[in-house]
Amino acid sequence: xxxxxxxxxxxxxxxxxxxxxxxxxxxxxxxxxxxxxxxxxxxxxxxxxxxxxxxxxxxxxxxxxxxxxxxxxxxxxxxxxxxxxxxxxxxxxxxxxxxxxxxxxxxxxxxxxxxxxxxxxxxxxxxxxxxxxxxxxxxxxxxxxxxxxxxxxxxxxxxxxxxxxxxxxxxxxxxxxxxxxxxxxxxxxxxxxxxxxxxxxxxxxxxxxxxxxxxxxxxxxxxxxxxxxxxxxxxxxxxxxxxxxxxxxxxxxxxxxxxxxxxxxxxxxxxxxxxxxxxxxxxxxxxxxxxxxxxxxxxxxxxxxxxxxxxxxxxxxxxxxxxxxxxxxxxxxxxxxxxxxxxxxxxxxxxxxxxxxxxxxxxxxxxxxxxxxxxxxxxxxxxxxxxxxxxxxxxxxxxxxxxxxxxxxxxxxxxxxxxxxxxxxxxxxxxxxxxxxxxxxxxxxxxxxxxxxxxxxxxxxxxxxxxxxxxxxxxxxxxxxxxxxxxxxxxxxxxxxxxxxxxxxxxxxxxxxxxxxxxxxxxxxxxxxxxxxxxxxxxxxxxxxxxxxxxxxxxxxxxxxxxxxxxxxxxxxxxxxxxxxxxxxxxxxxxxxxxxxxxxxxxxxxxxxxxxxxxxxxxxxxxxxxxxxxxxxxxxxxxxxxxxxxxxxxxxxxxxxxxxxxxxxxxxxxxxxxxxxxxxxxxxxxxxxxxxxxxxxxxxxxxxxxxxxxxxxxxxxxxxxxxxxxxxxxxxxxxxxxxxxxxxxxxxxxxxxxxxxxxxxxxxxxxxxxxxxxxxxxxxxxxxxxxxxxxxxxxxxxxxxxxxxxxxxxxxxxxxxxxxxxxxxxxxxxxxxxxxxxxxxxxxxxxxxxxxxxxxxxxxxxxxx
Length: 865
Prior knowledge:
Number of strands: 57
Strand order of the largest sheet: 47-48-49-50-51-52-53
Helix content: 25-40%
């Protein structure tokens, strides 16, 4: 009975001691629930001052700072106290922990409150939603389960801030600071984009070049290279494309530049090998093909094309063939086939049905189909809009494109330089004429091209009328003011109230009552009352009298004259009773004549000329140097050539030399001009021939002009038929040919009746007869080649090599060129109703053989060679 009270007393004593041990904390908890804030903090502070490792007090203090409604609510303080509470708890002995359980307090309770505090801190960071807020949370709440989320949100907030700043520096800083962030890929893309835009914001060529040098691995390399290519070649000159290839030979646009260069070359240069830097496989292939024509063939019901050597260039794939290609000798850059346009090597230029194709030049085509008109380069690229109204090449450098009835300007690479703002765009030389609303503006092609490099286009004065002026200059009018520009739009003739007229030396300007002159340098003469132009001279009259000028050589001859007249290229100044004769490019007179006289100019056949001085009853002939030749005793004189003159007296004509000595008596009705050392003669309606060098004469007795077949053989006509005679007037053949065709020095084609014979002038025998037709392929003085028909058989004959293709074919057509023929030969096998077609080269070598039935033969046969 005594022990029970003792036990009860011990329990009560222990409970009392526990209550005494946590009394302050319990009181604080009670006051927290009653929101007696001042009774919580100060007691706890005193406890912790005495016992700094009191986990229970720190736990309660954490609750104090984390209780809603508390004016001293502070998540960070709560976090600090709960962190210390957990730390102190873990350091407490087991016996102390057992005591704390009765508070109650253990690690689970502490952790739960810590998690609640972490969650509140995280929510606070989310509300602020800045990089700094999340950084603070991550640093201050390092054990919070929201660390992963906070990292992601921190990165997102930092990325958002970088996007808000939107500079490449901001994204570069973000990438460097958070290399593991989910947004790094997008940040890198934005960094590259903004870096590119910042470094090339002026869109100048040099900026793009510098950027590519500094950042060769940029993901925008393709765009940078495109801009460099388009701006560097904006001038459209061959040199600009060649320079680009030399500087950027490995660029993705290098081959495109090479292709454009090839088509900018003059035709004669396209036939020469290109420099190594400008070569590519495709260009070299086309270059080889350019040297040879193409010829169509039909194989297995499909058309293809072969070159002059018979090599198949374009496979037999086309179901149909435009008749214009049937006769071969195709030298066009592109071919229009069913459903497509191809280059000479078969490469596709354009796919689709084609209504028409126009070659604009510089390698561009205007292709029209039923729905649309397109501009396509011969290498296959489209330089701009998919559909246009029209297009033209400006000065071989730029493209003018018309769309919706307005014109724009693009580079050859497709970069737009001028918008669709113009009613018309034309060009004269390198000056572009822009028209809008009946007004004209002038600008150079270089100025337009420079806009690609952000050089502003300055359009100054507007004009009411513009037109080309000689020597590449441009005339313009604004109201009553007229002037002239050169190709650089520098003023050549100042604008004034005047009327301008072009002349051989420059031009003349006329105002209401005055005239002035200007030369090709724009230098202006004095003021005159009257100006008379007679190339190569100009006569100008002022109050003092007339002056002579030869603007191309001498601006003025100082002497004054009463009057001025012209005779051919001679200028004659009249003063008192004197006459002074001047010739071209001379300041001193050729001749001074006293008293009345008349000058007649006699033109020569070359740079020489003559003039006749008639004074009283005397006529004296002078050469162009003013040297007296002879006294003329004839009515008229004209120059025949080679120091020979045709003279006329009483309507009869003869020949004299430059010293007046006779070559032929004055007895002919007409004498022709000198040609290859001979002159034709006409007397009593009969024709003869005179060799002025050999002094040989065939007297007029023939019915048509004679001609020399060889130096010793002449062609003459009697009784309406041709024959051959010698200079001795003896016949070499009978006069039996209705027509003749030259063949060689010893052979000639002569037509008798309806057939031809090949006649040997040396042996005077027939070499080939019964020829029904002769079709000349080559007709040169030294070389002649013909397709001939004998009876019903065709063959090919050469004037030196003889028979090239035997006369045993039903038909022969040259589907090659005159210089390099290819023969389409056909032999009709009537029994089998087939046509055997064999192609031969110019030497008679077999190239290809095909067998056709009638319908297929008609599809490939050339009916109009």
